[in-house]
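For the sake of transparency, this paper describes our internal protein records without simplification. Such a record has a labelled line for the sequence and another for the backbone structure tokens. Nothing more is needed to write down the fold, since each code stands for a local backbone conformation. For reference, a complete record is included directly beneath this paragraph.
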Amino acid sequence: MGRSSEEFIARKIGKEFNRVKFSGPSVDRECRAVEEYLLHESPIRRGGNAAMIRMFSKNPTGPEIAAIRRIKQWALSLTRYRNQLQKRHPAKPSGYWAFFTDAFNYLAALPPPCFGRLRLHTYHIDGSTYQTMFFSSEDAYRICLKYIQDGLPVRYRLEAPQACGEYGHMIDGRLINDATLRWQKLIRSLHLAGVTDDLEQHRRPMFLEIGGGYGALAHQFVTLFPNALYVIVDLPETLLYSAAYLSLIHGPKRVRLVSPGESVGRNTPDNVSFVLVPNFALNVLRRLRFDLAINVMSFQEMTAGQIGRYLEFVSARAARFLSWNHDRNHMSGEMISVPDLIAEHFPSVSKLAAVEPGTILREALYRMDPDEKSAGQRPNLLVFGSGRAGISCAEDLRRTRRFNVAGWIDNDAQKQGRRISGMRVHPPARLLRRDWDYLFIASAFYPEIVAQLEKMGLREIVDFAVYEPYDYPPKIRRYDPLVRTLHDERAGRVLALPRKAVIPRAKTIKLFAADSRRG
């Protein structure tokens, strides 16, 4: 590649990566477009060194082969245990992940020596393959790495391990591939936010990763912080990847495999660096406190109930939580908003990667702030109707961050007692407890529900509202008027809305029912 072409690309990518104000998904798309152009579309991709990549394999030793056999037996026993749980247990894979785990379950049948090239199979996890790297240009990765590492101390500069079938370009003596670039962005963001300096002060920093993939990020963190204890919570099928990868790179003695009924405490021996826990045994970590909890690119693939279960656990046990996720994943079929679910448990938000050069996805660091109101201090709100309209209703109300959306009310006996979007469904009798502040009806049958509430003696409902899901297709129905009202009310100003949309304070249901009939 000529010098002029390199300077042109450097100017183009530098202009994008060095903006002062980076915020919002539009900028994320711009950054991603620049990186895609650099790595796949730019003229340097057609350079003369297009196929100059290296691949490093490892022939497992006798003890490592024995460890792989033990890991396979452990993962299979966890899978059998999980499959015996009740059908709707939150530890069961989401529909999205059930498809993928079914696709890579062949890994358990591979002979142990084949794990010496495990990275040839990790495309199931991160979508990256050696073939993509084979037809890429070293110059593209060199330029991209230059801007990601700009100003970063040498001790925080990453490389891929030269083992387990790892592949990539050798740049300045370091093996670099797509995964390396991804984790380098994450470390850069933490460093510029001062988190890495804080972690350096701990004798043994504690990390928790929800969904550890094949173990690449765990490897990088323990390489940077050799005394760390790194805990991975994941599906049993995926733990097979991370357990094998980390055991082959760091040695089997540094990896602890946790089974149901065991406990994990701070007294874990110093020679153990990694603790791998199945997702249905999350409670074995209840005695630990973590300096940093992490989730990368998997929350948007879970159900709202699964995300809520993890966030409830993390918010009570982690000083910080780093989320690097899409806001939502339409391919998963889940109508969730990851930032909104996180904000319920971490009300204080500090944006990181969305304002840092070299970032292609929205990333945020969440930290508990004692001055912020916790969910328990906000008014309690119940939603009558747990169907699609109710889920959309609860999502909009959560976005206001004014309420603790505490649960569902539903007449369907088959739903009662279940959890939907992380909240329990209660029978209407739950309203008689009077421990709630707001009630919202999200159902096309609201006249019948109003009559039902009247018969229950609930005549003096305060701050009562109805969503009418049949006005628009429920999939795209956004209840912006009500959400805006709540925001303006916080500032002391209330918008005028149709009387059938909002019940004024201290008005009765009977009056509301009459108004709604008049249309």
